Every structure is written in structure tokens, then in C-alpha cells.
Amino acid sequence: xxYNYFAVAMVNYEPGQDRNVAALNILAMCxxxxxxxxxxxxxxxxxxxxxxxxxxxxxxxxxxVIVKEDKVIARGYNQREIKNDVTSHAEIEAIRKANKxxxxxxxxxxxxxxxxxxxxxxxxxxxxxxxxKVIYGASDPKGGAISSSISFKDIKNLNHYPEIQGGVxxxxxxxxxxxxxxxxxxxxx
Length: 189
Fold this sequence. Notes:
Elements: H1 2-11, H2 19-29, H3 39-56, E1 63-68, E2 71-77, H4 80-83, H5 90-102, E3 110-116, H6 120-129, E4 133-138, E5 163-165, H7 170-188
Parallel strand pairs: 3-4, 4-5
Antiparallel strand pairs: 1-2, 1-3
């Protein structure tokens, strides 16, 4: 699969060169994998890398990237255990970084990519920041606030509803979180 080539490409870049540019250049040289990867998949792979960071730190593996004008401006992963902060979800961590980078709480022209369907708290923050689009990988039947547990778009009288796209690299996003919890259950036995 092209995921492994992308991960290798992210590591091999020249000093001073943007890692994303380096990765794309290497992928293009490796047989044109970009022809098979959508823009959404490209950014979701970066969110998956963030989820893997969370898993490595024994956090629930959810990752997020925020994109503006086709450039990643912020990244985040779950850090609730590390920070002992219930609000330290991947989306909130990334939103804080994006706010700081843009020196604004408004993220009007931004897209947010999340490996798992955002919860109600995160959808509230996404709504408040006026994101243009939310792209997520796998649904969250226990806590998702886009279409699983709660349907955010059914909340009446809001002045802004971001465009929603789900199911991007769904199998990969779902498998990361399933493996994490399976390993947690094994450790308890």
C-alpha cells in the first residue's frame, strides 16, 4: 500500500525543506502514487500520523490536522492523560495551535481533518471557529456528534454549518483505534 511509502517519505527530507513538499516529491518519483490519492486522503494520512503519536504515548489514538489554502497550519492528537485535561482532544489541541498561528479565533477558510468523528465538545468548538469543512475518517457510534450519536446538522437555528465529509481512509482510521483498545483489554487480562 502507498501508506508505507508516504511514511518513509515523511522521514527523508533535506534540511530546510518542508516535510510535506519532500514527501510529495518522493511519492511522485515512486511511480505516481499521488494519482491514486485524493487531497482528503493526503491530509488524513497526516492526521493518522498524529493518532499514532497519541497511541505511542498511551493516549486514545485520535489525530487531527488543520489545513488552510492547501497548507497544514496545525496538528494535534489526544493528550487528556498527559495533560490531565478533559478538553485536550486532538481537535481542541489543533484548534488552539491554529488560533495562535493565525492570531485569530476565527478559522473561516480552514478545513479540519480528524481520524474519528468529532464529539459534541469538539463539534461545538468547530462550529464556534466557523470552519469551512470537517473531514473525518471513521464514525464514532458511542460519541460522534456528526451523524452517529448526535446529528450536529439537526441542531436548529445555528448561523453556520460546516460542510461534512466522512469515511476518508475509514478502515485505517478505524483499525488504529480498535487495535489500541484490543491491546488495552489484553493488558487487563
